[in-house]
Known about the structure:
Blueprint: H1 25-36, H2 45-56, H3 61-71, H4 75-84, E1 96-101, H5 104-108, H6 111-122, E2 135-140, E3 152-154, E4 157-159, H7 164-177
Parallel strand pairs: 1-2
Antiparallel strand pairs: 1-3, 3-4
Helix pairs in contact: 2-3, 3-4
Amino acid sequence: MSADTVVPEMVRVEKDHSEKACFSDDRLAEIEALVKRYPSVQSALMPVLYMAQEDYGYLSMDTQQMIADVLGLRLMQVREVVTFYTMFREQPCGSYLLEVCTNAGCMLNGANELVAHMCETLQIKIGETTPDGMFTVIEVECAGACGGAPVVQVNNVYHEKATAESMDALIAECRTAGGQ
Length: 180
């Protein structure tokens, strides 16, 4: 960062102990330090979104507004990033997020049948969460691992050349382990 770069003053959102989202004091200090590393506050948006998703599980509208307030951005600037990237979730999901790539390479290698099997096994539809809150199955446009098609990403870990049997084993292992 050059000596001429002006780091905007962080806005501290006061905790009002309501149902609205608010960062902890420790998280706010972490965000303040993060913002100082970047030439503009908007550059810190993605890492702050990750922090919020880690803290709250997903990025509700209240959480997105809180992020905008903390960073001094407009809500639309936050929404543009949240809605563009598939790794940001706007709805709660299970302890295990099963993201099945259904793009061309994975589709041609059985992804559609795989996602149907997983949904049948878990007795849910795409985008739903099991009643115990453990699993959510979603389709993603491209996992970027065509050589390992079909690919299922489970909580940010890729499982390439996935089969119904390998997913059944993974689901059983997750059930044994319980929530995260």
